[in-house]
Write a structure and sequence with these properties.
single chain; 358 residues; alpha+beta; Beta-Lactamase; Heat Shock Protein 90; 3 domains; six-stranded antiparallel beta sheet; five-stranded mixed beta sheet; 9 helices; elongated
Length: 358
């Protein structure tokens, strides 16, 4: 009775398994295959398998992964009837899905009769998950490299180029007090003005690349400095509300929040046709939240490239994903735009807050 029950269970597993199962005899012919296997292989190939063609599997197999090659037929897993291979990767031309990767095992189940079984499990979902993960890791590394390079160039501009420019400006100013007059004095004054303008441009470029206040003092200080500069140079008034008590966070979080806010305000400045933007930064239930709101002309969220390329919005979403953040953009023509970023501050039982001292 127990033997019957076990046989019955095995038959049910064989018939209903999500894995494709092929049984081979000692001569390498397919003598049976379950329903899952039948569904993934072209009917003509199944017909040839059942008809005794020992090479029928080759009509659907596109190679396996060896220690030397990603896809090869050399040293085929079917070629050595004495060898059991518990896990390897193989590619099959499947019905309606093209070439699909499978994890496979090829085992002897009845040594006396030379009966062997090939079991296949579809790896498509795992491959897509791995591809998505690899893409996120690559994007993260690229953005980190960009920020590091921005920081390096910013410091170089501030500590070297700007200082050299300031020294030259001092020398120019000294010339005004020497015995020069007329056109020569006018030229010195003109050069002084040009150097002062160039020095301001260099300082601004340094801040735009990577504001030192972001690393030294955090988000609130960096935002206030940036918003003052926007008002002075573009006339854009940013109504800023911060409810953080100067709290600090992980460097990556601060960078992401700053860059997304910077991009959102840039878009408002460029496309919204408004002189006012409201920015709110606060915490709620373990989440850091950023709101950037304008009452400008708005746009169709589903068609952001009506003005510009839409790459800014794409870049904002990519940055948000780096810190497991959720970016929401709400807008309609004539009703303004709301950009909302939510960043979880607790991950895996640890907090992403970073309290700086001094």
């Amino acid at each position: 009775m127990e033997g019957f029950q076990l046989t019955d269970l095995l038959l049910k597993m064989y018939d209903n398994a999500s894995e494709a199962i092929f049984f081979f005899n000692r001569e390498g012919q397919v003598i049976a295959l379950n329903e899952t296997a039948r569904l993934i292989v072209e009917p003509e190939v199944v017909h040839q398998m059942i008809g005794g063609n020992r090479n029928a599997i080759c009509l659907t197999c596109k190679g396996y992964t060896s220690s030397q090659e990603l896809r090869t037929c050399d040293g085929c897993y079917l070629s050595n009837p004495e060898e059991n291979i518990s896990s390897f990767q193989v590619y099959l031309e499947t019905r309606g899905k093209g070439v699909v990767p499978y994890t496979a095992s090829f085992q002897t189940v009845d040594e006396e009769n030379g009966l062997r079984v090939l079991m296949l499990r579809d790896l498509t979902k795992q491959f897509k998950t791995q591809e998505s993960l690899n893409q996120k890791i690559m994007v993260k590394r690229i953005i980190e490299a960009q920020e590091d390079e921005r920081k390096r160039i910013s410091r170089e501009l501030h500590d070297s180029v700007a200082q050299e420019m300031l020294s030259t400006l001092v020398d120019i100013r000294l010339l005004k007090y020497m015995n020069i007059e007329g056109e020569a004095l006018d030229k010195v004054k003109e050069t002084e003005i040009e150097l002062m303008r160039l020095l301001d441009d260099i300082r601004h470029l340094s801040v735009e690349l990577r504001p030192a206040t972001l690393d030294d003092l955090g988000l609130e200080a960096a935002f206030r400095t940036h918003f003052k500069w926007l008002e002075k140079n573009y006339g854009l008034v940013v109504h800023f509300t911060a409810e953080l008590d100067s709290k600090r966070y992980e460097g990556e979080i601060e960078t992401v929040v700053y860059r997304i806010c910077q991009e959102a305000i840039f878009n408002a400045l460029k496309y919204a046709e408004t002189d006012d933007v409201a920015v709110r930064l606060f915490e709620k239930e373990g989440t850091l939240i950023l709101h950037v709101i304008d009452e400008g002309v708005g746009f169709h969220v589903d068609h952001p490239d009506a003005k510009g390329t839409g790459l800014g919005l794409y870049g904002m979403k990519e940055r948000a994903e780096l810190v497991n953040g959720q970016l929401t953009i709400l807008s309609e023509p004539g009703k303004g735009t709301v950009v909302q970023l939510e960043v979880p501050l607790v991950k895996g039982g640890t907090t992403n807050e970073n309290h700086h001292s001094g």
